[in-house]
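Protocol step 4 of 6.
Sequence for Palmitoyltransferase (Vicugna pacos) entered exactly as in the expression construct, tag removed. Do not edit the line below.
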Amino acid sequence: MPSSGHRLRDVEHHPLLAENDNYDSSSSSSSEADSADRVWFIRDGCGMICAVLTWLLVVYADFVVTFVMLLPSKDFWYSVVNGVVFNCLAVLALSSHLRTMLTDPGAVPKGNATKEYMESLQLKPGEVIYKCPKCCCIKPERAHHCSICKRCIRKMDHHCPWVNNCVGEKNQRFFVLFTMYIALCSVHALTLCGLQFISCVRGQWTECSDFSPPVTVILLIFLCLEGLLFFTFTAVMFGTQIHSICNDETEIERLKSEKPTWERRLRWEGMKSVFGGPPSLLWMNPFVGFRFRRLQMRPRKGGPEFSV
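Step 5 output, structure tokens:
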């Protein structure tokens, strides 16, 4: 340690850097410099299955809405308006899902707990810093280690298998949009299912759909169950996320009853910090800040994530 006045707290008394870690500070700084040019992705089997399942369920809902309910309808404008609205919501939901899954949630660089890095922090005498013994990094305030991502995540809220990623400082906005658009898709699908059942009961089942009546009933019932489950889950998650943002408190901090040592950004200030800027329609846009990146496989040692 450069000064006895600096204290490094480590519950497991892990050394600053093990000899077999072969950490290179220059490689770390270069990796941080081009982190904006990489796409984050977690190679977790359960998470990838849940993410694929999410896409399949949304595609199924779009198939039933489009080909079972809207295209056979005799009301042209009813089909066009509802088709455009539902497909736009589905595209926005899946885009938000991709942005959440492929955005770095705020991972702290691995292995930066070195004497050189400590000196660069210009710590005050007696100042306490914390080092994660699992990924050998200096933990910023409000950062927590994720056992699935194998990284410390800034303002980590939770790890969601449905988006195959942690929800943290840099992708919480997209996760909120994902839950909101899925909830809206579910409400729209449930409404269309109710109208479809009423139309088929009043008329002829053979005329209200291009599919046979038994197949139509099965498809609509499954869509109703899916819509109810998705709406319940995403509506609850959307509410808890907005509550957390307005109180500037992550789910982990709430569960651990951690006393805030930071200056809280309450209500609109918290919303502005997450969504960026004053309230506008851009808050609803998951494509803000998106740019295409050159695909390049980069295997990374000691972690399940890879970059492209």
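Step 6, annotate. Residues 145 and 152 are 4 Å apart (CA to CA).
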